[in-house]
């Protein structure tokens, strides 16, 4: 990344500012201003997060917001109510109160002497979610949004559920993370001596979010709130949707472009859960330059042609051998004038015997498949950060535990772009079951690279609002959407469709072992691929982006090894297998300017006995230390989740320390009925 020392505008930083709310609470903000903004007001850019401007995201915030300020914008990073030094308690994700506070913040920004009255919102993940949610409130000050790694549907694409399946991989892990995040103390350098009573009061009122998430196992009003897909027309400002093929949230970009009636563009690179200027795996791009072009057009009225390019720009990934990490994903940029695009056609392949054919077989058969609880161990992480062990490994062990259908070697290249789908006629011998569909690229030498996958809780076959048990032995016609992807399969490679009834530790297993009966032949089962026709009308290439740029950031010293390791252990005598993972968003540093130390560590463990789905066990541990000089605090959380045939059981423990003295402890244990899962 090129660090730009000479920016068009000198920048000054207001390290902390209070934004008052109508109920007397205050939100903490850090502000980067062009030096002459008070005399020549500029538009403001808001990033609105619960992740602490003063430490946890300080290293990421500084170069990005300095860059924006240096290009003529007031960049403002605000901590949500109950986070950082902001007053109150954060009671859950994406609550209406969070959005209402944001409307006050927008009005406050527009009224500042350094602001022109126009405001944009940029955010990744939580900040990408709430950027869309705030836009749906139609605040008059809001001129445009950039939403990165976010979703329009809170039930479909977040850490809680996938295809109606309980996500064992991330639900408890993220819940334990947020329990630790919400227990972090305010900084005494900002709030003074009241930091301790504020900290203790905040911990006394905090609660584990995972309990609420589990109480809503179907798509009800809890998830509809904050899901802008309920009515895209509520948003009226221009939206740039951004994501990565390795990220968990890319489906929303294609949905949004297909359904939003207003001005919108989409950008999908090879990246994980990161801003594209930091994108991993590479290539990263000059996203900050692209963002400034977006803001210049929509907030300053500059006619710079930002809307003249493709509606959707994607990185068409070339085939790669299966590995747990990639520094770079080779490929090329492809632009589509609109989405859906007539340049993408649907092509069906039909399982027959063990084959995947271009034409349906005239004969039919019913194939039995007994699911294995060891299937899914090579799945990789649910939401990749581009770390050293994020990606799926060789799928041959997974394929051996699945019902597989493999095509002949391809005679010509095949470029997949969009969401593949599987439609299948299937029966289960149990009333509760799930179906996993994986699409793989089988190399001539034998390795199997995962292209994409999808999950469906079969009790949700008719929708996620009103699940219904299966009638054992009865055949049902179901459709399983796979995650969106761009992947170029070379000639000589084969495609493989793999079906299974288990995907541990991604999905919580059904309470009983399941045998599926899959019907093939004719149109009883098919795989539908979205295939790009290179050179078709509406396709623009070659395309290129500038190299990444950033402004100078904060000087710091890294602490500890980088997180992201994934370890697999199997105890043959006990018949158990355990996956241990260090999430990629953990780590630590010491700021040079004042010696503040921030260090987050932890691990997640997933254990199961290969013959017993009720042995599934997940544990998440987090430790966060924040210190400066003689001031030293530490919070620790431990969360454990198990299940019986009828309930999920979750226990959480929160402890807090000042120095080595424990000053707070609280434990919770809840049982939540399984709702068709």
**Shape label:** globular
Radius of gyration: 25 Å
How many structural units, i.e. domains?
Answer: 3
Q: State the end-to-end CA separation.
A: 46 Å
What would CATH call the architecture of the largest domain? 3-Layer(aba) Sandwich
Number of strands: 37
User: Which CATH first-tier class of the largest domain would you pick?
Assistant: Alpha Beta
- Number of distinct helices: 12
Q: Which fold name fills CATH's third level, the topology of the largest domain?
A: Rossmann fold
Low-confidence stretches: none
Largest sheet: 13 strands, mixed
Strand content: 35-45%
The CATH superfamily title of the largest domain: Alpha/Beta hydrolase fold, catalytic domain
Name the structural class: alpha+beta
Can you give a write-up of this model?
A hairpin with a 3-residue loop joins strand 35 and strand 36. Helix content is 16%, strand content 39%. It folds into 3 domains: 10-158 and 230-336, 3-Layer(aba) Sandwich (Rossmann fold), CATH 3.40.50.1820; 165-216 and 555-677, no CATH class; 350-532, Jelly Rolls. With 677 residues, it is an alpha+beta fold. The two termini are 46 Å apart. The strands form 6 sheets. Strands 2, 3, 4, 5, 6, 7, 10, 11, 12, 13, 18, 23 and 27 form a 13-stranded mixed β-sheet that branches. Strands 29, 30, 31, 32, 33, 34, 35, 36 and 37 form a 9-stranded antiparallel β-sheet that branches. The model has no long low-confidence stretch (mean pLDDT 97). The protein contains 12 helices and 37 strands.
